[in-house]
Amino acid sequence: MLTKRIIPCLDVKDGKTVKGVNFLNLRDAGDPVELGALYSQQGADELVFLDITATLEKRKTLVELVKRVAQNINIPFTIGGGIGSIEDVSACLNAGADKVSVNSSAIKNPGLIDQLSKEFGNQCIVVAIDTRSVNGKNLVHSHGGTKPTDIDTILWAKEMQERGAGELLLTSMDHDGTKAGFANELTAHISSTVSIPIIASGGAGNMEHFTDVFTKGKADAALAASIFHFKEIAIPELKAYLKSNNIRMRI
What we know:
- The protein is an alpha/beta fold.
- It has one domain (about 5-245): Aldolase class I (TIM Barrel, Alpha-Beta Barrel), CATH 3.20.20.
- Helix content is about 35%, strand content about 30%.
- The protein contains 10 helices and 12 strands.
- The longest helix is centred in the first third of the chain and has 11 residues, at about 30-40.
- The chain is globular.
């Protein structure tokens, strides 16, 4: 059985780490390079950096940020935001990223995932899915969660796997920043529908929530932001807690 992963997420805007609630009301959470180095030292399994306004502002991900991050950490990291072509992915990987996260560009052109997987291998292609319940249906949202689509979240997850995604980053916008727990029911449903790893995101507030997302939610990895950024939970203590609850961890 594979170990479960703890992944801090750094949402980056204007070169700073920010965090909000339900994707709104962003506040400054510190320097992304310094935070990345800290989490690497603390034993995070991976890092995710999302340039959260890149698509909205129609610009590319911060390649210079990728270079600075890569120089300061020794664990895998994923970069996302504004990635929409083979050239974009190549630039990020060449700058030091291990994986790239694609969201809005895949919604606009699902065939992009086929192209990227064929070109780079599915091990470095992560498809991010921002989902929200709309009239009782879980629907995919694009452009940093600002634009709803009519795409069913579970069917989309299945299609992205078939097109060559190596991993799915599932963010429940309804749970994001609330600290009320992950969307375990939805996460478990998708996990049972696809065979690739699921990173659960949105709602972490205490250590028990991580236990729940790995057991009830059947997630392969759990991603969180504010509880780490604002030092509410330390990664070493979290991993020790999870291990004591019989969840396999890399300590």
